[in-house]
Every structure is written in structure tokens, then in C-alpha cells.
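[Discussion] Sanity-checking designs against the backbone

I'm trying to build intuition for which residues belong where. Below is a C-alpha cell string of 268 positions. I'd appreciate it if someone posts a full sequence so I can compare it with mine line by line.
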């Protein structure tokens, strides 16, 4: 296991660097520890990235936070802070680049059309998949340039195109086996309201921080009406994640759970 991350240092880093809002409030103790756990998961290679959504802190603040974490304990991987419009991702470049390359080669991710005009969710047609892959290729090119810099130091950059559907791209970049797509330029509406959704949640214990800290590594859904057609690829994704868990020592007791839910409205 990599050196422990002392909790006082984690709390201090979050409180000092990630204040946001008019009152400049910092993160709570539970949120600070969960955030550190998510950083550890990316550093350990259990996920290619995570989307920072604890508050409105921007890329420079997140980078400063990670830099202070490095002074507390070596994170053990090359992490990159990627700003995309108003969003910030913490990326493990050495995991993300091969993940995106694999996606472009064998379409390991299912792209699901949830346009508001549809009566029910369905798979994206070939032209739409090709368009999404074109956008993924642009991001891959950007990250390959980051990787080519060859530095193990923390780094940051920004990339964005108005043509991108960030909901779809975030699904890809967060390592999900499925991603939703819809014409974002026209509307953010979708056809998921009252549609049964199978939700997958992955949690594990982060021993680097605390033996009792359960960290949510993944949470995503797929329409139940398509699940039988996706089950094989999702099972393969789960097996790959379990193999990755066994190859590292920072997390233990990986648990993948599912439930079926129905919501009156779904925001993407």
C-alpha cells in the first residue's frame, strides 16, 4: 500500500483550497474525506477520472488542492486537472489514454440515444456513434499531448468545443460502460422519465485514509429495456474492474450492487 494519507492533512487541504460561493465555505469533513478517496481511486487506476462536483471551485483551486495533497503523501500517479467549460475533471493520464484508445478501436462503450423525441431509449445509430467517437478522438489527442510532456508533476489544461455533448463525453471519460446521448444543441430533455433504470453502484474501502471509509467509485444507469442486450459487455466491465481492484492495495472490499428505479424526471 502507498503511504497513508493523514486525515488532518486531507481536511486542511480541502478547507484551504476548495472554498467557494459568496461565503467562501469549505467542504465538510465527510465530503473532504470522500473527495480524497476519489482522488486515491483515480491515482490507483480504478477509474480514469472523476468529475469534481463538490462545489463550484475551479481548475486552479483543484490543482492547488492536489499540490498540497502531494506534500502530505505521494499520490503515486501522474494526475492532470482538465477543465472543460465550467467543469473540472481529475484525470489519471496513464489510464485515460489507453481507455480512450480502446474505446475508439472496439466500441466497448454502449451509446444510448435518450432524445426527448423518442418514445423509449434505444441505441445510437452508426452516424451518431461515429460523431461521438470523433469528439472522443479530439480529447484523446489533447491528452496525448499532455502525456508527451513526460513530466510526473501535477499539471492542468483546458479543452472544449461547443459541438460536444459533455454529458456523453463525461460518461466516456469517467469510465462507464454506457453513456447517454441526445442533441444537446437542441434541448437537454430526454425520454428517461418513468422509464425503469438499472442503477449500478461500485464502492470500496480506502485503507490509505481509514479502514472504515467506504468510497463510491462509480454510479451509472442503463435503461432496463436495453439491459439484456448490454449484459455481456457490462459483465466484462465488472470483471475488468474486479481484476484492477485485485492488482492494487489502496482499496479493498470492492462491492458492485444494482437496483431498478423509476423517476418522474431525470436530469442529465
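Best answer:
Here's mine. Compare freely.
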Amino acid at each position: 500500500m502507498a503511504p497513508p494519507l493523514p486525515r488532518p492533512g486531507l481536511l486542511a487541504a480541502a478547507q484551504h483550497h476548495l472554498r467557494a460561493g459568496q461565503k467562501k465555505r469549505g467542504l465538510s469533513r465527510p465530503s473532504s474525506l470522500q473527495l480524497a478517496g476519489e482522488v486515491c481511486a483515480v491515482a490507483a487506476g480504478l477509474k480514469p477520472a472523476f468529475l469534481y462536483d463538490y462545489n463550484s471551485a475551479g481548475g486552479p483551486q483543484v490543482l492547488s488542492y492536489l499540490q498540497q495533497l502531494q506534500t502530505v503523501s505521494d499520490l503515486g500517479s501522474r494526475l492532470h486537472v482538465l477543465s472543460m467549460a465550467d467543469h473540472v475533471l481529475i484525470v489519471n493520464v496513464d489510464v485515460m489514454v489507453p481507455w480512450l484508445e480502446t474505446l475508439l478501436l472496439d466500441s466497448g462503450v454502449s451509446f444510448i440515444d435518450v432524445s426527448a423525441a423518442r418514445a423509449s431509449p434505444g441505441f445510437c445509430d452508426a452516424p451518431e456513434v461515429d460523431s461521438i467517437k470523433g469528439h472522443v478522438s479530439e480529447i484523446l489527442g489533447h491528452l496525448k499531448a499532455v502525456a508527451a510532456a513526460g513530466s510526473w508533476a501535477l499539471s492542468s489544461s483546458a479543452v472544449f468545443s461547443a459541438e460536444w455533448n459533455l454529458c456523453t463525453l463525461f460518461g466516456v471519460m469517467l469510465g462507464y460502460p454506457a453513456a447517454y446521448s441526445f442533441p444537446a444543441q437542441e434541448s437537454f430533455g430526454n425520454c428517461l422519465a418513468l422509464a425503469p433504470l438499472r442503477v449500478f453502484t461500485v464502492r470500496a474501502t480506502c485503507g490509505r485514509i481509514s479502514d472504515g471509509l467506504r468510497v463510491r467509485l462509480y454510479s451509472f444507469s442503463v435503461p432496463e429495456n436495453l439491459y439484456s442486450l448490454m449484459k455481456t459487455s457490462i459483465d466484462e466491465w465488472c470483471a475488468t474492474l474486479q481484476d484492477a481492484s485485485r492488482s492494487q492495495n489502496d482499496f479493498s472490499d470492492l462491492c458492485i450492487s444494482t437496483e431498478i428505479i423509476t423517476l418522474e424526471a431525470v436530469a442529465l
